[in-house]
Structure formats: structure tokens, C-alpha cells
Amino acid sequence: MVPMAVSPEIDPGLVRAAQHGDRMAQGELMDALIPFLGRICGPIALQDGPDAVQEALIAIFRNLGQLRDPVAIFGWARAIAVREAVRVARQAARAIPGELADLPAPGDPQLAADIADVLSRLTPEHRAILVLRDLDGLGEREAGALLAIPAGTVRSRLLRARRAFRKAWGQ
Amino acid sequence: MNQQWPVAELDPVRRLRVIAATTPGVIYAEQHIPAPFGEVWAVASDLENELPRIVADVRTFTITASAGERLQARARSRLGLRARFDVVLRPGWCLMQSRFLFFGMAAVPEDGGTRFAGLGALRVPGARLLAPLDRLLLTQRLGYGAIDRLADRARSR
Fold it and tell me: Is the ipTM above a cut-off of 0.90?
């Protein structure tokens, strides 16, 4: 069973204060959002992750007034972060779509770096699927809605991305 | 396995850029200071002693309460105006806000020196429409070359 997506809790009063132009509240809200956004943008935008987080935060705070329910801020921010991370990664033109032939061998001493290495062989869209389904635990429909693609496409992209990981770690 | 997934970080200067990009009528400046981060931040974070030397309009800046990285301060301008500021201060990061004013500073090590950023904004209704006037007023309050004065202070310590 796929776990439900878990979002950190936030004081609704903090969000409302930031919506009303309290910059100290904005700073505090930013402190709370950055680890969450970094976990989404890092695997999708890779070395351009900081650019993606920065762009996501700018989009979030420019549009914060449109957020009706302060409690929903993390779900709302997730959608913006995925969109910005894919956009930044595409702009950087570092994605290498296609075959996944040169994956690192299992037991490579640089195992910690291998995940980033494997991710870099996927398109930003495949990386976004992995983050939403395997890291955040969203369902196919939720992930598809965030990425504006059908659930079937979510499934096929996820299968391909997972196959790449299994191959990399010899599982 | 999740712990090994890449996680993107955002350094203090990038954080301040976000605030600058989303604050109406803001003035923002960023430059490289050829002095180590520790020396630069020692000056920037010494609010009581250094703000009156660096910011043109500040005569005194007195910390009245502190709890961890959160402070309260009382500022007095050269014209005698008083304001109470809420402050957040930690290494490389400082935000302060009064009823009508907002200031921020951020710094990170860069190439043996320091990248330093500062911003200021008026907290008034219609700040977006009044942006040119805001910027003029703020520039007068901060004084031209505030970051250069900070760099001079860091070098003279």
C-alpha cells in the first residue's frame, strides 16, 4: 500500500501574517518551507536545486494572497515546487532522456552520490514522478494532477524510473 | 535510501533575494566584500555599535530584550524619531521590522571573501505604487554606500 503524503504542520496564523505583508512572518515561513521544498527540488533539479527552490519560493510568496486555506500551504507549495523544479531542470538542458545504459555498478564506493547520478540519467519529468510517488507517497491520480498528465502515464513513467533504480542497485 | 537523495539548500543571500523579489518598493543591494565572512558578520551583527556608524539615519539602536535568535530593539533616528523593532539574528542572517520599516541583511562566504546583501522597504499601504518614492526615502535613510561603510568597518577591526 502506498503511504499517504505527509506534510509538516504549520501555524495558520503565521501564513495569514505573511499574507498581510508581515516580512518577519515571511522569513519564518520560509524557514519552514525550505527543507520541504529542498526535498522536492533537489532530486528533480539536481545541481540546479537551489535555483529551483529560490524560484519556487518567489512564486509562492508572489501568489500567497491567493491561498484560501493556510493549512493547505504545503500541498499548494508542493505543486509550485514540482513545476518550478521541472522548468529549471529543462532550462538547464542537462537532462539526458532515452536509454539508461551506463548506470553505475552495484557496490560503487560513491554510493551516496549514485542516487544523484542515476537521477541525472532520467528526464526531469521522470524525476518528478519518482519524488511524488516514492518520496512523497502521492497516489497516481494526485501525482498526475500535479503534473497535468493521465494516471496511466504516471504509471508508465514510474515503472521506467523504478526499473532504472533496480538496475543500478542490482535488486 | 531516502536520506541519500539529493536535498537542495538555500543559503542566506538567496533567501534575501526571495524577500527582495516579493517585497513591493524594496531597495536591494548585493556585493562581494574582500574580507572573511567571520569579520564581516562580526560587524554586521553588532547592531548596537555598528548600525549607527553604517546606516545614515540611525543615531542609536538599543537591544531591549532577547530570546535565542529573536531580539527586540529600540531605534532612534537623527531627527529624534523612535521605533520599536522585532529582530531575528543568526549567523549570516538578520531581519528587523518596525511598524513602518523593514530591513534585512544576509552574508555567505565567497571566494575567500564574503557575499553581502542588504535590503530595506517601507511598510505602508500602496507601497507598490509608491515604489520610486519609497526607494528615494529609503536610500536617504540608509545612506549611499552603506555596504561600503560596512566593508570599511570590517577591515578596520
Answer: no
